[in-house]
Amino acid sequence: MTDSQNTTQATIGKFNLLNIVAMLDKGAYLDGGELGEILLPSRCLPEGCKVGEKIKAFLYLDSADRLVATTTAPLAQVGEFVSLKVVQVNKIGAFLDWGLPKDILVPFNQQHTKMEVGKYYLVRVFLDQITNRIAASSKLDKFIDIWPADYQQGDKVNLIIGGKTDLGYKAIVNDLHWGLLYDNEVFQHLRVGKKIPGYIKQVREDGRLDLILTRGSKNKVNDFSEKLLAHIADRGGLTPLNDKSAPELIQRTLGVSKKTFKATVGNLLKKGKIAIVKEGIKLL
What we know:
The chain is mainly β. It is built from three helices and 18 strands.
């Protein structure tokens, strides 16, 4: 979750830090600025609250389209990407569980593919400026910046896994751009919607981003590539080491982890410098 909005003007779909202006049996009324006074039901009130105190509350429209406040945190705020489960589909769209009593709607015209009950989908939460209703969309591209990204190699970024491709995994970078994690450089289970730190591996000439999950891995692969090629050449162009070899054997023979070994092998395979054969790895 992002930090509270510390202003007098409340924002729907976000957490706000608001003044309590009245206390009643049914709850507290909060000063929402231009939005007026907003009810925070008594079930959400922290014990001991008083008029004049500030309270952190999330604002949304309830099932009767009334603006209400809650201290319950939804799984995402407006402007964020999140993976959510479909709990109902009806004639107006799909409803997703986002942690509040009122499920969030994905209208049919905001569905990239037809949604099915029980499945998870990566969506962007947004505010309908006409109705003030919070909704979600799985048409992610329209929320991604079309302008080239201003990043440098090695920059640390926040990633949200967006889906599997033939080359690896698409990931949303800092909620703004698409990037790509390559299969041969991923050594952990990734699911759609997973939030994970990463790094810029390179900014390509077309402005697209190549990503990596560990800082410096690219340089390690490059540094070790020559050593691995020399190791194979010294053995007549063939080494019995392969991806089934024990980590201890790889460490003892080459002085690197199995993770670095596999990443380097994948990199050299892609460049056409080696081949996997029955006996091990062959120099081309």
